[in-house]
Amino acid sequence: MADDATQELSVTPDAVAGGSTHVSDEVVEKIAAAAARAVPGVAELGGDVARFFNAVLDKVGLDQVGDARRGCSAHVTNGAAVINLVIVIEGGRRVPEVTDAVRAKVTEAVEAYGLRVDEVNIRVDDVAMGSPTSGA
Protein backbone atom coordinates (compact mmCIF):
# COMPACT_ATOMS: atom_id res chain seq x y z
CA MET A 1 0.00 0.00 0.00
CA ALA A 2 2.92 2.40 0.59
CA ASP A 3 3.73 2.14 -3.13
CA ASP A 4 0.31 3.57 -4.02
CA ALA A 5 1.26 6.85 -2.35
CA THR A 6 4.46 7.24 -4.43
CA GLN A 7 4.00 9.35 -7.53
CA GLU A 8 6.36 9.33 -10.47
CA LEU A 9 7.26 12.77 -11.80
CA SER A 10 8.02 13.10 -15.46
CA VAL A 11 10.56 15.66 -16.62
CA THR A 12 10.00 17.17 -20.02
CA PRO A 13 12.80 18.66 -22.13
CA ASP A 14 11.19 22.10 -22.07
CA ALA A 15 11.09 22.22 -18.28
CA VAL A 16 14.02 24.61 -17.80
CA ALA A 17 14.60 26.75 -14.76
CA GLY A 18 14.62 30.50 -15.27
CA GLY A 19 17.41 32.81 -14.32
CA SER A 20 20.14 34.86 -15.88
CA THR A 21 23.65 34.23 -17.03
CA HIS A 22 26.45 36.77 -16.75
CA VAL A 23 29.86 36.21 -18.28
CA SER A 24 32.45 38.21 -16.35
CA ASP A 25 34.81 40.66 -17.97
CA GLU A 26 37.74 38.53 -16.78
CA VAL A 27 36.52 35.49 -18.71
CA VAL A 28 36.30 37.51 -21.93
CA GLU A 29 39.75 38.97 -21.25
CA LYS A 30 41.29 35.50 -20.97
CA ILE A 31 39.62 34.30 -24.17
CA ALA A 32 40.61 37.43 -26.10
CA ALA A 33 44.20 37.45 -24.84
CA ALA A 34 44.72 33.80 -25.77
CA ALA A 35 43.29 34.42 -29.24
CA ALA A 36 45.46 37.51 -29.78
CA ARG A 37 48.64 35.67 -28.72
CA ALA A 38 47.91 32.99 -31.33
CA VAL A 39 48.05 35.46 -34.23
CA PRO A 40 51.28 35.40 -36.25
CA GLY A 41 53.03 38.74 -35.85
CA VAL A 42 51.99 39.30 -32.23
CA ALA A 43 55.16 39.10 -30.15
CA GLU A 44 53.63 39.95 -26.76
CA LEU A 45 50.67 41.52 -25.05
CA GLY A 46 50.81 44.41 -22.63
CA GLY A 47 52.36 47.83 -22.44
CA ASP A 48 55.85 48.67 -21.26
CA VAL A 49 54.91 48.77 -17.58
CA ALA A 50 53.03 45.46 -17.69
CA ARG A 51 55.92 43.78 -19.49
CA PHE A 52 58.41 45.22 -16.98
CA PHE A 53 56.45 43.87 -14.01
CA ASN A 54 56.00 40.53 -15.77
CA ALA A 55 59.79 40.29 -16.24
CA VAL A 56 60.26 40.98 -12.51
CA LEU A 57 57.67 38.32 -11.61
CA ASP A 58 59.44 35.86 -13.94
CA LYS A 59 62.72 36.40 -12.07
CA VAL A 60 61.18 35.68 -8.67
CA GLY A 61 59.39 32.55 -9.87
CA LEU A 62 55.90 33.98 -10.22
CA ASP A 63 55.89 33.82 -14.02
CA GLN A 64 52.21 32.82 -14.30
CA VAL A 65 50.85 35.72 -12.25
CA GLY A 66 48.70 37.96 -14.41
CA ASP A 67 49.73 36.38 -17.72
CA ALA A 68 46.29 35.16 -18.78
CA ARG A 69 44.81 38.66 -19.08
CA ARG A 70 47.87 40.86 -19.44
CA GLY A 71 47.44 43.40 -22.21
CA CYS A 72 43.69 42.94 -22.42
CA SER A 73 40.68 44.56 -20.85
CA ALA A 74 37.04 43.89 -21.64
CA HIS A 75 33.65 45.16 -20.66
CA VAL A 76 30.58 42.98 -21.13
CA THR A 77 27.10 44.52 -21.15
CA ASN A 78 23.93 42.65 -22.13
CA GLY A 79 25.83 39.88 -23.89
CA ALA A 80 28.02 42.26 -25.92
CA ALA A 81 31.73 42.81 -25.37
CA VAL A 82 34.03 45.74 -25.96
CA ILE A 83 37.63 44.53 -25.90
CA ASN A 84 40.81 46.62 -25.63
CA LEU A 85 44.19 45.08 -26.42
CA VAL A 86 47.73 46.37 -26.10
CA ILE A 87 50.12 44.42 -28.31
CA VAL A 88 53.74 44.28 -29.35
CA ILE A 89 54.23 43.28 -32.96
CA GLU A 90 57.18 41.42 -34.43
CA GLY A 91 59.67 43.49 -36.39
CA GLY A 92 59.04 43.61 -40.12
CA ARG A 93 55.30 42.93 -39.84
CA ARG A 94 52.73 45.27 -41.37
CA VAL A 95 50.64 46.80 -38.59
CA PRO A 96 47.29 46.76 -40.48
CA GLU A 97 47.69 43.08 -41.40
CA VAL A 98 48.50 42.04 -37.83
CA THR A 99 45.76 44.15 -36.24
CA ASP A 100 43.14 42.99 -38.76
CA ALA A 101 44.10 39.37 -38.03
CA VAL A 102 43.94 40.01 -34.28
CA ARG A 103 40.46 41.57 -34.58
CA ALA A 104 39.19 38.64 -36.63
CA LYS A 105 40.69 35.98 -34.33
CA VAL A 106 39.53 37.65 -31.11
CA THR A 107 36.03 38.21 -32.47
CA GLU A 108 35.78 34.59 -33.62
CA ALA A 109 37.04 33.24 -30.28
CA VAL A 110 34.74 35.36 -28.11
CA GLU A 111 31.69 34.81 -30.30
CA ALA A 112 32.29 31.05 -30.09
CA TYR A 113 31.25 31.43 -26.44
CA GLY A 114 27.91 32.93 -27.43
CA LEU A 115 28.72 36.59 -26.88
CA ARG A 116 28.57 39.39 -29.40
CA VAL A 117 31.68 41.52 -29.99
CA ASP A 118 30.91 45.18 -30.62
CA GLU A 119 34.49 46.49 -30.69
CA VAL A 120 38.06 45.26 -30.61
CA ASN A 121 40.32 48.26 -30.00
CA ILE A 122 44.04 47.67 -30.46
CA ARG A 123 46.98 49.80 -29.41
CA VAL A 124 50.35 48.78 -30.84
CA ASP A 125 52.68 49.67 -27.98
CA ASP A 126 56.02 48.43 -29.29
CA VAL A 127 57.81 46.47 -31.95
CA ALA A 128 60.00 43.50 -31.04
CA MET A 129 63.17 43.89 -33.07
CA GLY A 130 65.26 40.75 -33.32
CA SER A 131 62.99 38.75 -31.02
CA PRO A 132 63.19 34.94 -31.15
CA THR A 133 59.65 34.76 -32.54
CA SER A 134 60.42 37.03 -35.49
CA GLY A 135 63.05 34.69 -36.91
CA ALA A 136 65.57 37.54 -37.13
* Radius of gyration from the alpha-carbon trace, in angstroms: 22 Å
Average pLDDT metric: 81
Structural class: alpha+beta
In whole angstroms, the N-to-C terminal distance is 84 Å
Q: Residue ranges: pLDDT <50 for 5 or more in a row? A: none
Write down the overall geometry. elongated
Q: Secondary-structure element order, as H and E?
A: HEHEEHE
Number of discrete helical segments: 3
The portion of residues assigned to helices is 25-40%
Count of β-strands: 4
Largest sheet: 4 strands, mixed
Query: How large is the share of residues in beta strands?
Result: 25-35%
Can you walk through the features of this model?
The protein is α+β, with helices and mostly antiparallel strands and 136 residues long. Helices cover 31% and strands 25% of the residues. The protein has three helices and four strands, in the order αβαββαβ. The protein has helices spanning 25-37, 48-59, 95-111, and strands spanning 42-45, 72-77, 80-90, 116-128. Strands 1, 2, 3 and 4 form a four-stranded mixed sheet that branches. β2 and β3 (80-90) form a beta hairpin. It is elongated. The protein starts with 24 loop residues before the first helix and ends in an 8-residue tail after the last strand. The mean pLDDT is 81.
